[in-house]
Design goal:
Elements lengths: L9 H10 L3 H16 L40 H28 L5 H27 L12 H8 L4 H29 L3 H32 L3 H11 L11 H6 L4 H10 L1
Length: 272
């Protein structure tokens, strides 16, 4: 890890973790950070306006990043095909670690609970990443062996100047797509005989419901704080930031559990 001016301050430490390019060092650093926070071993300066000259997010030289349509699809009845899918999910979890860390260091002035929530998300995403990375190795591959796309982080970068837009369009939009997609992916892996991968996705889906709920919590908090209505605000932000069009089918049960209202779900069905 790089040296820091305030080695016990949560947001500066989160920035240092974000800048770490080695995935294993990043994930282990995040887990230590979460443990130290739980043990009340860190300070938190919510008022500090932090600045970074570091390249963020820190990432390894591989995987090579390509446009989404250039990521090759492979047959699920082969080991390489299952590995390619596991690799894609592993890359999403790596970016999910980064997006949680970015939410901590970048946005000042939020309640303490906001930073605690996103640190918990970062730790759980690190756990998902490690489970998928280890299973990928069990299949004879490593993280970086396949190309990947960067759509999730691109939306993180687009919303870096507005915490309301970040909460609206990353956890509530990009990550919520995972709630819809994971059950079908789990079924494919189970059908291919990869029960361990299916079990990992069960853990991932369970935790992702909580992560999307955190996004909903802070989006609605900010809407109330700013005196704006959540649904039209969300729709306007989707247009402003060119959010991807959502397509069904939707996992309505998981979305309800994550805090989406019936009005939001109805609007989702109308535009998809």
């Amino acid at each position: 890890m790089r040296p820091m001016a305030a080695p016990n301050e949560l947001r500066q430490l989160a920035l240092a973790c974000l800048a770490e390019p080695d995935p294993e060092l990043k994930s282990s650093a995040v887990n230590r950070l979460f443990l130290h926070w739980q043990q009340a071993g860190l300070t938190l300066n919510v008022a500090a306006k932090l600045h970074s000259d570091l390249a963020i997010p820190g990432r390894p030289a591989k995987p090579v990043l390509v446009p989404p349509l250039q990521v090759k699809r492979r047959a699920m009845n082969t080991v390489a095909g299952r590995a390619a899918l596991i690799h894609a999910l592993c890359h999403i979890e790596f970016n999910a670690i980064n997006l949680a860390l970015d939410a901590i260091w970048r946005f000042d002035g939020m309640p303490t609970a906001y930073y605690a929530d996103w640190l918990k998300v970062a730790s759980e995403e690190a756990g998902h990443f490690n489970l998928l990375k280890d299973h990928l190795q069990h299949l004879g591959f490593a993280y970086g062996d396949f190309d990947a796309h960067n759509s999730l982080w691109e939306m993180v970068d687009k919303t870096k100047h507005d915490v309301l837009a970040r909460m609206a369009l990353v956890p509530r939009t990009m990550e919520a797509r995972g709630l819809d997609a994971l059950p079908a992916l789990r079924a494919k892996l189970a059908q291919a005989g990869d029960e361990l991968a299916a079990a990992i996705l069960d853990i991932t889906l369970r935790d992702e419901v909580g992560h999307v709920a955190i996004g909903n919590r802070w989006f609605n908090f900010l809407c109330q704080q700013q005196g704006v209505a959540p649904l039209p605000t969300f729709e306007a932000l989707c247009v402003t930031y060119l959010a991807p069009k959502l397509r069904g089918p939707f996992n309505l049960a998981a979305r309800r559990e994550a805090g989406f209202t019936e009005a939001e779900l109805s609007a989702l069905g109308a535009v998809a």
